What does this fold into?
Amino acid sequence: MATMHRMQTAGLELFYANGYYATSVDDILKKLSLSKGAFYYHFASKEDFFIQIIQNLLARKIYSVLIEPIEGHDNPLEQIVDCFEEALETAVHNDMDFGCVLNNFLTEFRGKDQKIMKHLCDIFSIWEVNLVSTLQKGKFNGYVDRHVDCEAAATYLISSYFGVRTLMVGTTPSARKYRFMSQLRVYLKSLEPRKVVA
Amino acid sequence: MATMHRMQTAGLELFYANGYYATSVDDILKKLSLSKGAFYYHFASKEDFFIQIIQNLLARKIYSVLIEPIEGHDNPLEQIVDCFEEALETAVHNDMDFGCVLNNFLTEFRGKDQKIMKHLCDIFSIWEVNLVSTLQKGKFNGYVDRHVDCEAAATYLISSYFGVRTLMVGTTPSARKYRFMSQLRVYLKSLEPRKVVA
DNA sequence: GGTTAATCCGACCGTTTGGTCTGTACAAAG
DNA sequence: CTTTGTACAGACCAAACGGTCGGATTAACC
It folds into this structure.
């Protein structure tokens, strides 16, 4: 694997684990047994390094994990349950959950680094827009009730997903996952089409 | 106001705005035109300073804003709507929302400072326990359906509340608040007692 | 063999960090 | 007037930070 790619992979891991500001360039280099020269040969600055990680790694992962599995199928509500279920399962095993990564970075850079914030918001926006249109398509296909406000539903779904990751820090994350999923199903049930009253 | 109290107030503001690690002791002292001597006369360390802020300011505010307004009333579902509505309104005006503060710190210290994490989890736990017991009381009083899993509902409610604060960073926070509240009502509606089928 | 460009090393720099320590202004007590 | 303890000032420190720079290594090409 090329050095540049190794740096990005290790960088994302450490930034996710410790935060951007709390992770020094030396930390990353120490993990890979590399030197300052190697880093600043490939990247202009720490900020530039981070932005490349976002665009090369995070954006693609968000798409493949949170967008692609949902869009393109018939019943969006079922796909959402499966997708969240899978994402939270990786969270239970403490593997890197890219939805959580995005959430962490969004909170860390709020009101600080505008440039980085722009890139993060772009990624988030893509996810949101896709979720909304998928719900609207589900409405068209009869899987979502026609009275549902799809934009509001997307906001609520993403909110709950982002938030539950914060709750899964403490003890018994799998219990919290189970509780969350049960109520997610309750909420999604209310989006289903009303039975036609004969 | 005593110097010690002024430091804590200013400290919380800056920690909330910039994060714990990204805020230096000098930043706080500069804001109050004080010196290092004053700080380390009152506090043993930056960590000790932060813990005192958590216990003296954050814990009390969480109670008065998120716990007290919900408990003790008849219908918990109505109180939850009002309470979240009010909390998110302060968020729209960019004032300090203490639920958001707790969320930010929980994500910032995850897996880093165990000692601080313990204190934050304690505060969170109090909120969660209160919300669960309030829902259970609501079930007893006939405002919540008897089939509802109160622990799961509390988890879901807190998740969505924590998460929506992340979404309100970008543009049009008030629009996101409106969408969130509409779906919160949809969800809470599904917790109401089923009409007895005659 | 000599030249060139790519890749990486590691000493070094200025600044900032959390924290220490000596000193001092001052009010209350003797 | 002297003593004593409180409440702060600010110079100072070692460590860590992001970033620079001259040089070493290596392989490819003429």
Q: What stands out?
A: The interface with chain A takes residues 17-19, 21-22, 103-104, 106-108, 110-112, 117, 121, 124, 149, 151-153, 155-156, 158-164, 166-167, 169-170, 176, 178-180, 182-184, 186-187, 189-190 of chain B (CB under 8 Å).
